[in-house]
Design a protein that fits this description.
This protein is α+β, with helices and mostly antiparallel strands. The protein folds into two domains: 2-182, no CATH class; 186-385, no CATH class. The chain contains six helices and 21 strands. The protein has helices at residues 2-72, 84-100, 207-217, 274-283, 287-290, 319-323; strands at residues 118-126, 131-135, 144-147, 150-151, 159-160, 171-172, 174-175, 178-181, 185-189, 205-206, 229-233, 236-239, 247-248, 265-266, 297-299, 306-310, 329-339, 346-361, 370-375, 383-385, 400-401. Strand 18 and strand 19 (370-375) form a beta hairpin. Helix 1 (2-72) packs antiparallel against helix 2 (84-100).
Length: 403
């Protein structure tokens, strides 16, 4: 009996000692786990801050590149508001200003360097590779802008770390970039919630005459084109030069036009009346007009020309309508050839260009009649983006992000 009691006492003593050792081990393990939990929490907080700041930088770069391209686009077109150099300066200033409006990380306003964080390039379509080719070393004019806001140690703008300092990491460098571009349009399509009409005149000009006019406005021979009108903004047209030579469509230089046709075309119904022409001149094309074309799209290019029926021509019946849009910009079709007389004429249209109506007089004898236009920037939310090179007379898209 004494032996049994002795054994039980020993077992109890060993159990108590084991429990005591286990308690000490749990405390050590618990302390170790707490370190891991706090380290994980710190990592989560720091990583979350980095992720949030990256998103904020991306938003800033998206907005800034779009704003920069919008400013630079003011230097593109026949009646550009500013020069290319001025456009570049304005774009840089706009990008920096836009970035400064965004909160990134722990600061309410973000700094950007106009010289280092904004760059310009050209983007051209390669038919061989069926892709866009970017060139950031060109001298301009440009058609894309990249903006890269940076939070870097060199500028003392890096994202400060809170828990990372325990490991000797005081800050984290971040940068995000976006590229915005414009392209030449190759047609039009009515887009929902973007306006109910497209300002295209049902009046066509031949390519040869138009190219001579463009040449006279880009440093070539004047070819007999005048500069007697000056666009003063809005609907105001003054006499005198504004540096953009003009074309008198009627009487026109389209000597190849067939008898009974003076350049008006049916865009939409093949049986457009004078009332239809007047409506299109004043209000533009509507969805019904576009419904006569495949997929409701109006495309025209040298490779895929658009065929339009002719009308009897420019006459006094549309004079008041044309006078009501003096000073406004419109798009007109440019054709390479025309066949057939009067309503049976067929125009081969290869592109659309922008013009501004300056003067209209379709009364009296042929020598007194005139329809004066000049090349102008034309804008529309219904533009279809194309792949052709942007030239002096191109209709260009609104800026959009390409990455």
């Amino acid at each position: 009996m004494k032996r049994i009691n002795f054994i039980q006492a020993k077992l109890l003593q060993c159990r108590q000692k084991w429990q005591s050792n286990r308690t000490g081990g749990i405390l050590v393990l618990a302390a170790f786990m707490l370190v891991i939990v706090f380290a994980f929490a710190a990592f989560t907080v720091e990583y979350g801050m980095i992720a949030v700041t990256q998103g904020q930088l991306q938003n800033a770069s998206d907005a800034a590149s779009h704003a920069a391209m919008l400013e630079y686009a003011r230097s593109i077109g026949p009646d550009a508001e500013i020069s290319n150099d001025e456009g570049e300066d304005a774009a840089r200033e706009s990008a920096v200003d836009m970035i400064s409006r965004f909160r990134t990380g722990n600061v309410a306003s973000t700094h950007a360097d106009p010289a280092l964080d904004v760059r310009f390039g050209t983007r051209t379509w390669s038919a061989g590779s069926n892709s866009w080719v970017e060139d950031w070393s060109s001298d301009g004019p440009f058609n894309m802008v990249e903006v890269t806001p940076r939070k870097i140690k060199e500028r003392n703008t890096e994202l400060p770390m809170t828990f990372g300092r325990v490991l000797g990491v005081d800050g984290h460098e971040l940068e995000r970039s976006s590229v915005a571009a414009v392209v030449a349009a190759d047609g039009f399509k009515m887009r929902e919630n973007a306006g109910e009409w497209i300002g295209i005149l049902p009046i066509a000009v031949d390519l040869g005459t138009w190219e001579k006019l463009v040449n006279s406005n880009t440093g070539g021979s004047t070819s007999g084109f005048s500069d007697n009108y000056s666009y003063a903004g809005g609907t105001a047209i003054d006499s005198g030069s504004d540096g953009i030579r003009e074309l008198n469509i009627y009487p026109d230089l389209n000597t190849s036009l067939p008898p009974g046709n003076r350049g008006t075309v049916d865009i939409g119904s093949p049986n457009n009346s004078t009332q239809d022409l007047k409506r299109q001149i004043v209000s533009g094309l509507n969805s019904y007009d576009l419904s006569f074309f495949p997929n409701g799209e109006l495309h025209a290019s040298v490779e895929d020309p658009l065929l339009l029926n002719g009308d009897p021509g420019i006459s006094a019946g549309i004079e008041n309508s044309l006078q009501s849009i003096i000073g406004q910009s419109r798009a007109i079709p440019i054709f390479t050839q025309v066949s057939g007389p009067g309503n049976n004429a067929t125009y081969t249209v290869v592109k659309f260009v922008g013009v501004r109506i300056l003067h209209v007089n379709l009364s009296g004898g042929p020598k007194k009649r005139s329809l004066m236009v000049q090349p102008a920037t034309f804008e529309s939310p219904h533009i279809i983006r194309g792949t052709s090179e942007i030239t002096y007379d191109s209709i260009i898209s609104k800026p959009f992000l390409i990455r």
